[in-house]
UniProtKB/TrEMBL annotation:
Catalytic activity of the protein: ATP + H2O = ADP + phosphate + H(+)
CC per GO annotation: cytosol; nucleolus
Pfam families per the UniProt record, alphabetical: DBP10CT, DEAD, Helicase_C
Protein name: RNA helicase
Domain Helicase C-terminal span(s) in chain numbering: 280-426
Top enzyme class: hydrolase
Motif (Q motif): 50-78
Keywords: ATP-binding, Helicase, Hydrolase, Nucleotide-binding, Nucleus, RNA-binding
The protein's Enzyme Commission number: 3.6.4.13
Lineage: Eukaryota, Metazoa, Chordata, Tunicata, Ascidiacea
Region (Disordered): 724-824
Organism encoding this protein: Phallusia mammillata
Regions of compositional bias (Basic and acidic residues) in chain numbering: 724-741, 789-800
Residue stretches making up the DEAD-box RNA helicase Q domain: 50-78
Amino acid sequence: MGVDHAESQVKQSNITELVSLVDDVGYTSEAELDTRKLVSQVNRKKKKSGGFQSMGLSHLIYKGIIKKGYKVPTPIQRKCIPLIMDDKDVVAMARTGSGKTAAFLIPLFEKLQTRQSTIGARGLLLAPTRELALQTMKFFKELGRFTTLKAACILGGDKMDDQFAALHENPDVIVATPGRLMHVLVEMELRLSCVQYVVFDEADRLFELGFHEHLHEILKRLPEDRQTLLFSATLPKQLIEFAKAGLNDPTLVRLDVDSKLSDQLKLAFLHCRFEDKLPVLLHLLRNVFSETEQTVVFVPTKHHVEYIKEVLLQFEIVCSYVYSSLDQTARIINLSKFRNKTTMILLVTDVAARGLDIPMLDNVVNYSFPSKSKLFVHRVGRVARAGRTGTAYSIVCPDELPYVIDLHLFLGRPLSFVNPNENYQAWDSLYGSVAQVVIDEERSTLASIAKNSELQALQKVSENAYKQYYKSRPAAASESIKRTKEILISTKIGIHPIYGDVIDSSESARLELLSNVKKYKPTSTIFEIGATTKSTGAAVMKKTRKRNIKFVDKYKEKIKTLKDDVTLHNNISKGSQHSEMDDEDKVTEEELKDVFARVIKPSSTGFMEKKKFKKRRQNFRDEQFFIGYTPKDHHTESGLSVASGQVSFAKEASNVSLDLMGDEDVQLRKQRAQKKVWDRKRKKFVNAQDVGPAKKKIKTESGRVISATYKKNIYAEWKKKTKFDERDGQGEVDGKEDWRGGRCRNKRFQKKAGGFQNKSSSDNYENGGKFGRPGRGKSANHGGKQGKVRSELKRPEQILKARKQTKQKQKLKQKRRPRNTRKR
């Protein structure tokens, strides 16, 4: 009884709240009451548990969400759905598995609501691959099961005849891949002028697969007042330019997961030669990581993925692998194995890993160090989530050390090298070398499989691919390159503490001896050993030594100074690490200035000294009368401003822009070969593709490059074969508008109970009377509902009726025969 009483009190409070809202809105009668708006206002007011109830969704859509099993929206849904329902263009950075499909389907259902007599699709969903489009279509049917909305799937590999028929059934939403959709649009001369809602799913992958021209051509056919949504894992510059051109004042939605490194993440930098990277990786996978830890290994190209996969299989290490050109089915199978922990290692490239959302990772290994600091954060941001600990291991060769220095400048952390004479309890963010004993041991195991001809071929291909990768990757900062040379000359990098259990005292002594032998330099040359007084070689070397003695002494002095600086550098690094722990990972400007003095300061101070004596330029402004275009306290006020929503999309997007390097030869060549030509109008060098009215080319599903307006008259042949013109009236042949035309509500065809009625065929329709029988004109009968092609097969009832009619005719003929014979 108490529960029932409480429930009745809650219901009574809701009713009174609704009544008060009615009074506020000013409805004059109950018939005008829109309950959905009132419920949404109540829900927005109450914010029930932060769920879908607070979003003001209609009953049928909310029912479909609950039936699907959703209870609480994901972070991307919570941020995107209110913005989309306010009719704003949105660019959302979301990974696969973050719930982005529901984030754009729920507002789609809310906007379209139900089927209408409008002729033409009102929603367009574009996906990069056939599998993703089918997944979106399946999700559309499950989530919108209680709505009457209808969708058509236009995919490559399916029959175009079926797709023509599906479009003539007047779907509300089109789910398509850009290649086949562009082909259908050209063949049918569709203009998509009724589309209100456009979604580009995984937009970065759309551009990666070469759909740039397709997307621009599709955008031209869409109305300007459409709402455009763009979902992407990363934001390359090309995608930002597309968003600026195709979207109207877009809002950038970004979950700040990878904006900074987690406090629970440990970093380890392992220094070795380029040839020793594979032995170091093998040691990490076999000896350092446990069997229960999941690890992602980032490699430069797809050829490295294939080579390392085969090497690991030789040592009975099962792994999953993903790269950009991998078949979608194989991609799904490999990822499901890794997610289900059937395999504990995943080999990926940057392009393939973009958008993957893999929870509960333990380790990340950078087999090739990323050339951009943002990319490093993007990689290692996958571990140490939700309070879990994780480690990022980076295998660094000497030519990648400048990128490590750039990274530490970007993160604001000191770069600490391992000192051979000290013992380290904690090794977070330390840069140390790999023990030679480990490399030698793993090299001997690799030598046992070196005679495998398949592995030799894969190794050669991967080496050639790395040459292309090396040429196309962007260079590091010049100051970082200069600092790297000084470090490699003057610093003795100790063995990393993770190899502490491998190194004992005898091994340390051996390594010290080998290091001294390597550094040994004789005082005399080969020409001076055993030379006599008459030896011309000794005399020449004596003169050369006398001439170059100044430069040699200067170089030795420079090396000595550098070594002193490095000692000071190591001391400051330790102090800064200690203060970092005390100040909660905050590094002051003074510490950064001391740590990276050679990077930040100019090479010589002479310029600064000269600048002091420069004549100060006289200011022409009279402060008493001059009025600036901005207030004097403009920068102060903008710094204190809390209205972050007023920041432009271009500024926000530039902060998160990230261009990834390709993992195939074709993609690497594109990045390398940026041909510049002289533009006479702009008076500067520009990209070749930006000059002149170049003919736009697109790549077909078979890989053939054709013109964007190429047409084969497939649609005309289909109409002729199915006799569609006889059933559905005249098309665009006469230049008149039909269901493909520019207007959504075409006056030539009007919706009737029996299909589409020609306006001129019935006077009753024109006069506003009841719907009568259609006229006997050619275009009166459209053969079924909404232009659907009528089947020529008869139903059993029709066959039975035809038989009865023929029998009746035969009986009438038999009755008439005797009368005719009598007259004769």
